[in-house]
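Possible regression after last week's pipeline update?

I re-ran a chain I had predicted before the update to compare outputs. Posting the input and the new output here so someone can diff against the archived version. Not blocking, just want to make sure nothing changed silently.
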Amino acid sequence: MAGIIGNVFAFIGIVVAALIGFYSLQISAIVFVCMAYGLWLLAMCYIFLLKPSKDAEICSLMKEHEIEVFRRYWLYILFPLPAQALSAMMNLMRLAGFVWGGICLWSELYWLGGLSLAYFFKTSPL
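New output (post-update):
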């Protein structure tokens, strides 16, 4: 259910950027790139700034390898529905970045196409 919500929000953002494309493909691509990288930066800041430390109270009950797993997947363990929504949103934006990159390269918008394709590859390990 949360994945559907994340995909709906990402789809709305993609459609808004695409509708701007009727006016100008360059502005549309800029809007998409700003939305995609903004979402990625927001997720990275949230994940790294709020990541529990190794000295957290809950970590005192765990073994070393359990602490590493907890610190890597803490967002999903503590907040499963928002984590699924964020994951779905970023994945749909990732796929759209691949398509948008191809369209931009075809239209000779090389910088925007490169940024869109870089987003596809940069966010793949998340």
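Follow-up from reviewer: compared with the archived run. DSSP finds six helices and no strands in the chain. Marking as no regression found.
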